[in-house]
Each structure stands twice: as C-alpha cells, then as structure tokens.
Amino acid sequence: MKKSDVVQKLDFLYVLTLIIAIVETVLLFPILGGIIIVSMLWVPLLVLLGLYITCFIISSQMVSSLDDGKVRSDMLSIKPKFIVGIILSVVAVIPIVGWVSHIIMAIIMWQVFTNISTLKTDLIDNDESNGEWKDVTPDSEKDKNTEK
C-alpha cells in the first residue's frame, strides 16, 4: 500500500472519528442525549454502530496491508477501540448504561481522533523532510504485483 493510500484512509478515519466524537459528546448529556435517542427511535445508536463498524473495517484493512512500522502499530492500538464502540453502541439502548457508554466512548473517540491527527501529521512531515514517500507495501503484496 502506498503512503498516499495510507494518508487517504487516515483522512477518512480522521473525519469519521471526528463525527463520532462530536455525536458521542452531544449524547453524553443526560437529558439532551436521552431526548435525541428516544425521539429518533434509537436510530442514532444504529448510525453510530455503522460508523464504528466502518472504522473497524478500514483500520483492519490498513493493519493487514502494512508492514511493521509506526503506522501499523498505531492502527493496532486504535482498532480495539472501535470494537469497544461496537459493543457499547449495542448496549447503549439501556438508559443509564447508555449514558455511561456515551461518556466512555466520547473520551475514547476524542483520544482516537487525536492519535489519528498526530499520525497524519507525522506522515506528512516525514514526506516533506524526505522529499518522497517510501512504499509501505508488504513484500508479499509486491511479489503478487510483479507476477501480474
């Protein structure tokens, strides 16, 4: 996978985690969050579930397609947080438990957002200092591409 592809996927994760963090922050307020969830018939929880699943799939693809390195290790540390989000968005249908889950996930998602932002900045700074991207395609992928 080329670093430009990595940056593109990081950009997408960056936007999704920002959206998730903002929604979770709004929903963590007890009365406001409860009114939003109940008045929309729990649809926001389904939307959050879909966003967490999407983020998990993208981070899994990135982990499987990258060689060992900082990006891969950072994505390995971020990936379980999306699993927690999937579980807590399902459990959040229970009123008091949902409120606590939104508090937990708002904190975690702001942390993930910060981690992705830092990772993106590091990749871009690395690009400017070296003058070119280093291909981060695993050797097995390179072999497949050369055989075609």
TrEMBL record:
**Highest taxon listed in the record's lineage:** Bacteria
Keyword Membrane on entry = yes
The UniProt transmembrane annotation reads: 12-36, 42-63, 83-110
Q: Which UniProt keywords apply?
A: Membrane, Transmembrane, Transmembrane helix
Quick check: keyword Transmembrane helix in the entry? yes
Any idea what this protein is called? Integral membrane protein
